[in-house]
Amino acid sequence: MNGLFWFLLILVLFFLLFLLIIFTKLTILAEYHHHNDNDDLKLEFRIWFGIIRYKRHIPLIKVDDDSPSIIAKTEKPADGNEQSSDTGIKQITEDSVKSYLEKAKDFLHKVSGLKVIIKKFLMKIKIKKFEWHSLIGLGNAAHTGIAAGGLWAIKGSALGILSHNLSLVAEPHISITPHFQATVIQTRISCIFQFRIGHAILAGLKLIKFWRGAKTSASNKTNFSNEKMKSV
């Protein structure tokens, strides 16, 4: 009897923990800054009002001047210590880019039917903050004015896409400051996303179910085609 009591107690505790995780809101803070050739992206994940948080600094990416490739800086821990790290250099060549594109094309072809699942999940994501401020100058007043107008159009389209696919609950703040005396390009994007972990888990389960169904369907088609060839 005593063992049954502890078993039921542990079962109830696991169920309550599962409910807690399901209804927990995950907040993602993203900040991107571009200044001429320098890029910087910072991400922070928070749950339970910031009691648990995880920060991530995305490596910088730039174009290699000596070859038609991209250099990405990566940090790898030395001796298992995260504080002491060595910087490695990884080159992304034209062949590897083509390989990635072919894989991405094949993946998109397979998951074309997942748009409904993804769209439903995106509608659950709330944008609680969105700021996009830019400073642009091309050294020429006329060219700077044209570039600023084009950038306004890009920002307007981006806001339209966000408001159509996600839940924009905060008023966005965007600005473009033209600089007519110098050549400079700066932009800073700061935003806060929030969604329930349960919605992400549900979307993940739907994706797994759909993916397994797609693989089963493809396997059945292949078997049917082989049987037809044998019969002929």
Low-confidence stretches: none
Distance between the termini: 68 Å
Q: Specify the structural class.
A: alpha+beta
* SSE pattern, N- to C-terminal: HEEEEEEHHEHEEEH
Radius of gyration: 25 Å
What is the residue-averaged pLDDT?
A: 77
- Name the shape in a single word: extended
Helix content bin = 40-55%
Largest sheet: 7 strands, mixed
Residues in β-strands, percent: 35-45%
How many distinct beta strands? 10
Number of helices: 5
Would you give an account of this structure?
With 232 residues, this protein is α+β, with helices and mostly antiparallel strands. Helix content is 46%, strand content 38%. Strands 1, 2, 3, 7, 8, 9 and 10 form a seven-stranded mixed β-sheet that branches. A hairpin with a 2-residue loop joins strand 1 (25-35) and strand 2 (38-47). Helix 3 (115-122) runs antiparallel to helix 5. The longest helix is centred in the last third of the chain and has 35 residues, at 197-231. The termini are far apart. The mean pLDDT is 77.
Summarize the helices and strands and which ones pair or pack:
Layout: H1 2-23, E1 25-35, E2 38-47, E3 52-58, E4 61-63, E5 70-78, E6 81-92, H2 94-110, H3 115-122, E7 126-138, H4 141-165, E8 167-168, E9 173-178, E10 183-196, H5 197-231
Parallel strand pairs: 7-8, 7-9
Antiparallel strand pairs: 1-2, 1-10, 2-3, 4-5, 5-6, 7-10
Helix pairs in contact: 3-5
